[in-house]
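User: I'm curious whether this sequence folds into something compact or stays loose and floppy. Could you predict its structure so I can see for myself?
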Amino acid sequence: MIASFRRLSKSKIGTVILVAFGVAILASLALTDAQSFMGSGGGSGTLAKVGGQKLTERQLQDELARRLNMLRQQNPAATMADLTNSFDATVADLIDQMSLQEFARKTGFVVSKRLIDAEIANLPGTKGLDGRFSEQAYQQFLNQQRLTDGELRRLIGQEILQQLILQPVAASPRIPVGVAQNYASMLLELRQGEIGLVPVQAFAAGLKPTDADIQAHYAANRTSYMVPEQRVLRFARIGAAQVASVTATDQEISADYQKNRASYAPKSVRTLSQVVVQNQATANAIAAAAKASGSLEAAAKGKADAAFTNLGEQTREQLTSLGGAQVAGSVFSAAKGAIVGPVRSDFGWTVVKVEEVREQPGKSLEQAKAEIAPRLTEAKRKEALADLVSKIEDAIADGRNFQEAAAAAKVTIEQTPLITANGASRANPSFKLPPELAPAVQRGFELGESDDPEIVALNPEGTDNVLVGPAQVVAPAPAPLASIRDRVSADWVRKQAGDRAKAAATAIAAKVARGMPLAQAAAQAGVTLPAPRPVAVRRLQLAEMQGQVPASIQALFTLTTGKSRMVADPAGGGFAVVKLNGVTPGNAVLQPGLIAQVQKDFQEATSTDYARQFLTAVRKNIGVRRYDDAIADAKKRILAGS
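Assistant: Here's the prediction. I'll summarize afterward.
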């Protein structure tokens, strides 16, 4: 919930837009997978008690399914396993939501039905053609999102509670200018010193390992030379290529034409615009003004509750479904330019202008064939592909092996060399699998060596599939020394050179600590080292490095004047001896822009901290008890079922 609040707090606090935005996000989720996940028989054990409420495993499953669907909008291949890192945060969010609900109930803080109704009416998917809330559109919206009215109201109520309770607590914390100025001055602090580099490569000259050295290094570091599990995988593609010969016959095309003959008959098409109002007198006035001016849109301007819409081209059937038979009958009896109405419709009083009239000629069977044939062929190929997949699945279910199942369906088998889980071949570096087979490779490495082969869908539509199974499994093991001898030799040299570089850097640092100049100490290292370089860095520059601050620069800000220390390069390139020669305090008095930025940053952090402290107090007041063992078990079950 804190993360959610942090996002909300960056918008304009205290506006209904925030609630509408939160609700729109919730409403936009496609909950198909949430429903199927619920149907998988998940547990309903208690994970936590929040006041008088219980957080169950089923509730956690539902929330994780919603978050998975949101993730799949960016990554369609995402699974429950991709939520592993956010699992604990999701549990905490649900506990915080329930704590707020209990707090609201305990203190008599009620989110009214009217307030929730208003938010529902503002959702774009709940409006009819007249731009107003429509019960029919609302039901369609709920069906599309696979939500019940109660579920949507619960989600909206949670968002409103979060806005109305948390935002006032955390809104606009005041950070005194004096505090911000002191911290801004710290950012301007200047540190001057020098850095002497001791690269590993400088100590590698003349190092040549013996056979015994290589053997000993290999034996001591066998885990560093492990070859991950390798497999030979078999694939059989089941997709468009396997059903390419399936096409619609002339008889099927003719039958479809006869079945849908009305669609190919001549028809009249009208280009229309309309105005819908609730008052008949207003509709009469708009119709009269439109007939006088010729412009329906101009006639509707300034009229209360008048909703003008360009309907574009409409057939009689289309207009009937939109506005009803009475409106369609009147419109299709009128000539071009006519103002029709007012006519009573399901949405109110409707006035329509016939902008254009076009007679659409019909199509003969021969003319319609180019339209019918591709549609029927596509449908037949989908059916043929589904039959092919079923045939292979049935063969596997009957105990047939990979080759037998593929042969029964007459699909071609392809086999990889030994590959690792990323699809690479150690024996043949040029070997590459098509990128679309990545899900099949992943599943091929998940299957046991004796498991049945499985069909993996390569796209959401199910039109591209592959049968996959392991033909050979080679367990992880150290690579044979003979195959990596040069690598082991180079690693030995690097290790010996690193040890020498560290000893040299340690000696240099000791001499500098006793007062010797850094340049003089570096010159006594016994090898040629880069000359120490002067550095001057402000704290503000560290932020500009976006977390990529060199270890030597970090060390500069841990020292007191005159002190030095040795630091290692995290990448293994060597060592550095850092000495701080002086510190010049910063003064932000002449930089009001920096003070204002620090003040703003502190306000955002303090706002989040206020919200966190308030939630902590709410949990303590309500009484929260977590069942950590149950949560851990649920985590294993839910993520393993991904």
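Summary: Residues 190-226+485-584 form one domain. The chain is about 50% helix and 20% strand.
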